[in-house]
Amino acid sequence: MLSFKPITIEDKGIITACTYPNNLLNCDYAFANMCSWSFLYNSEYAIADNYLFIRFDVEEKGHSRHNAYMFPVGNGDLKHAIDIIEQDAEALGRPLLILGVTPEAKKKLDALFPNSFTYIKERDFYDYIYLREDLSTLKGKKFQPKRNHINKFKKQYNYAYLPITPEIIPECMKLEQVWYQANKVEGNSEDLFHERHSMIFAMEHFNELGLTGGAIVTNNKIVAFTYGSPINCKTFGIHVEKADISYEGIFSVINQEFAAHIPQEYIYLNREEDLGIPGLRKSKLSYQPVLLLEKNATVKRR
Q1: Which has the closest alpha carbon to 243: 131, 145, 112, 149?
Q2: 10 Å Cβ neighbour count for 45?
Q3: How many CB atoms lie within 10 A of CB 90?
Q4: What one-character-per-residue DSSP string does 75-134 give?
Q5: Is the distance from CB of 135 to CB of 228 less than 8 angstroms?
Q6: With b meaning 16 or more CB within 10 Å and e meaning fewer, what string describes 148-167?
Q7: DSSP state, 214?
Q8: How far apart are CA 57 and CA 66, in angstroms?
Q9: Nearest residue to 124 via CA among 300, 270, 296
Q10: Which of 90, 94, 157, 225 is 20 to 30 A from residue 170's alpha carbon, by CA?
Q11: Which mean pLDDT values do the consecutive 10-residue runs of the chain (302 residues) have?
Q12: How far apart, in whole angstroms, are the C-alpha atoms of residue 222 and residue 219?
């Protein structure tokens, strides 16, 4: 049996030693995400037989919770790795549920376990993946509307881009509080509260989590900020982006500035999912992703 332990900041080295070398594009493999959201999902990990295993809780209708798994990360015997987590799930009284299964992972499962899994596409959780160079330069006709927004902002405001440091984190969180109050409505308050909880943890442990961030300042006021962390050696995940929308074009500005300041070793930027929010989906599609990463909820048939 696997011996799982809760994911803590102290586990960053051992977990990223497994995830960084692999070609994992899924934002859920970013250590900062695993750790800062562990309060909600009770995220745990185990290492065995050359594989990293991640187990966490998910909520069903009626608010009952049960365990789920991420696709194992490693270079050993994958069939044995899947058998291990199936045994773990059965010991907990549940069928094996793997979330975030990409088309590549699906092919591997079907080759090893023909006709054994049921797949449910989860469009709201597809990841939007872009070329870093596209978002940093916004070259070409397809990005003309974005350049227009940025130019309009620049004509109205003098601004500076600042990297997030401990000195400006309190000001960033003041902006987040304003954003939170402006966007909180019946039906989303619990989700926003959980996001806020995750952000507070991330800001309090910014360097330990390996986060990088930036902010836009105009008139001595922070009007936008963002942060993220590596998913693998070539892909950087953008976890949070907040702005004062009374400044027209501000999201276009913070998006381009941050992309321009991310180290060039990262070829891809993962701006995560849209959660089925129409405005967010429209915005993320407008940036012309090079890949819309399909994710499936996958259940092993008994």
Answers
A1: 149
A2: 22
A3: 13
A4: SS-HHHHHHHHHHHHHHTTS--EEEEE-HHHHHHHHHHSTT-EEEEE-GGGPEEEEEHHH
A5: no
A6: ebbeebeeebebebbebeee
A7: E
A8: 5
A9: 296
A10: 157
A11: 94 97 93 96 96 91 78 96 96 94 97 97 98 97 95 96 96 92 77 92 97 96 97 97 93 97 96 94 97 97 84
A12: 8
Beta-bridged to residue 98, according to DSSP, are 69, 298
Residue 247 dihedral angles phi and psi, to the nearest 5°: -95, 100
Distance, CA of 204 to CA of 226 (rounded, Å): 15
Its pTM stands at 0.94
DSSP class of 268: E
C-alpha 131/C-alpha 134 separation (Å) is 5
Please give the pLDDT value at position 61: 58
Amino acid letter at 29? Y
Q: What is the DSSP letter of 71?
A: P
